[in-house]
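REQUEST ID: PR-0412
SUBMITTED BY: lab tech R.K.
PRIORITY: routine
TASK: structure prediction, single protein chain
INPUT:
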Amino acid sequence: MGKADYSKEELLAMNAKEFRSIVRRGEWTEVDINVCRGYAQANLAIVPKGCAFEFLLFCRRNPYPCPVLDVTEPGDPQPKLMAPDADLRTDLPRYRIYQDGKLIDEPTDIIKYWRDDLVAFLIGCSASFDWSLRAANVQFRLIGAYTSNIQCIPAGQFHGPMVVSCRLVRNGHDAVRAIQISSRLLMVHGPPVHIGDPAMIGIKDLYQPDMFSVGLVAPQEPGEIAMWWGCGITPQTVALESKVPFMITHCPGHMFVTDRLTEELAVL
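STATUS: complete
OUTPUT:
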């Protein structure tokens, strides 16, 4: 249980509905960044109806880390715009439960935590535009996600630092192409928020991501450029800093796979 014997090629070839079905059956609870080639992935944040407007306002004020793809009706676990037959209580590989600013659980479904007053937000994920970068032959290495010193614009009780993801891009040409391509995809974080020295945004060690890591990586090569995008893990730092009474999120690296292709979300 948790990691059935699916090959990398099988996972890439699945459509979103097929992948969600194996997650729902408990056959996959691992990181799912490289599944369902071309499909847009989403981060998750779930809050009670009483503070849902404040959270929506927070997302609108901070579109680079928190671009909203879909919002559910209170008590309804189905995201009608992004995947109408999905169930957000079961269709992510792993979740996080925050209570009063503390992480209290990391379950593989949230059936026992679900309530009739909960509103779910699907937030764009930069793993989505990685498909577009690869299609354009942009050479890059995803390193991980970090808490930066960039403060989000607060809304009501919600405040805290922006989480950013880092990719090392091969050279200046590929960096320009990465900016051009990601700028078309505002719904999955858009252009980078910083380029270059991690210390300028409060990150002490490029090789020690504090929010999500892909594992050991080779040192930065001559000519490689560090590029930093807003990240949908940001609501989790907000939950901790704001001491939000209750929030459910995805576990970093364990995203929701939507029915939409990344290119469907591109600015024309």
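NOTES: The chain has six helices and twelve strands.
REVIEWED BY: pending
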